[in-house]
Amino acid sequence: MARGQQKIQSQQKAAEKSAKLKKAAGHTAADQKKAAMAALKSSCVLCKSLMPDPKTYKQHFENKHPKNELPAELKDI
Ligand SMILES: [Zn+2]
Q1: 30 CA distance to ligand 1 centroid (A)?
Q2: How far is the CA of 49 from the centre of ligand 1 (A)?
Q3: pLDDT tens digit string along 17-73?
Q4: What is the pTM of this model?
């Protein structure tokens, strides 16, 4: 009986451990996604070109789409 209980306990511990690992892994994946989103600051709303930073985006917008109004988030840059 004692051995059986030990087995159940160790199974429970293993389940807890894997649940924690899964949670940690999910958290890491979300963080990586966030980091990836932050790295790709933005993409042009008109031509969908990826912009490495807002300054480049603003320059791109002024050069490529001079007839379009500058997006609000670029006006302060
Ligand atoms: Zn563009």
Answers
A1: 28
A2: 6
A3: 877 777 776 667 777 666 555 545 689 999 999 998 889 999 999 999 999 999 888
A4: 0.48
Structural domain count of the chain: 2
In terms of domains, do 35 and 45 share one?
Answer: no
Cβ(74)–Cβ(62) below 8 Å: no
Of 33, 32, 64, the closest CA to residue 48 belongs to 64
Its domain, for residue 72, covers 40-77
**From the CA of 73, how far away is ligand 1's center (Å)?**
15
The 10s digit of each residue's pLDDT in 7-27 is 888 888 888 887 777 777 666
DSSP letter, residue 68: S
Mark whether 6 and 33 lie in a shared domain: yes
- pLDDT, residue 20, reads 79
DSSP conformational letter for 48:
-
